Amino acid sequence: MLIDIIxxxxxxxxxxxxxxxxxxxxxxxxxxxxxxxxxxxxxxxxKHVDDSPFGGGAGMVLKPEPxxxxxxxxxxxxxxxxxxxxxxxxPSGAVFTQAKxxxxxxxxxxxxxxxxxxxxxxxxxxLADDLISIGDYVLxxxxxxxxxxxxxxxxxxxxxxxxxxxxxTDSFFDGMLGFPQYTRPRDFExxxxxxxxxxxxxxEIKKWRAAQALNLTRSRRPDLIRAE
Length: 228
Ligand code: ADE
Hints:
Layout: E1 2-7, H1 14-17, H2 20-27, E2 32-37, E3 50-51, E4 61-62, H3 64-77, E5 84-95, H4 98-105, E6 109-113, E7 119-120, E8 130-133, H5 143-154, E9 187-188, E10 191-192, H6 202-220, H7 222-226
Parallel strand pairs: 1-2, 1-6, 4-7, 5-6, 5-8
Antiparallel strand pairs: 3-4, 9-10
Helix pairs in contact: 4-5
């Protein structure tokens, strides 16, 4: 999968994409991540990408021309036969879910347009196939949401997770929270590992885990059950 990120702050991604599962996916050539510096597409000599809003008001607004030029350049640089989407992380979008991560993982290419400042000139939204929010709060820009989305999508790609990290035991894999896990020691300050997990009876363990997942979901996230 090819990920393009159009941003004013590519350095923000270095730590997150340079470690752990995303790094491994890149090293294994399952994932290619390219950055495009939005400022390179500013058209005036001062390289302005933002301007004050028509109608007045505080803050600056991202200008349409550099963003259109950057997106067109990125799309022109890659194969138009790829299945691809331009995504703008934005608090006005549909809230990101595991189902959406799975859907995006089936694409060949995702182009993220990360905004900063007070917002986008409204005409920029016409470029987007999807607006995605990562929750009902406002962040400083689209970079953190893009990292969150790439992380969740990358781990759904075939061969990214080892068998020891199977996505099948993830919370939300089947629309519910995951079951509780335990490891050594069996007795930690008087808190015991449930007997059934030590029994070696795999049928019983499977039943117990399914019941625990349901109980956890009912008590912590009843909205997930109602949503089904
Ligand atoms: N940009 C600013 N806040 C955001 C959010 N909550 N989700 C996605 N993009 C954003």
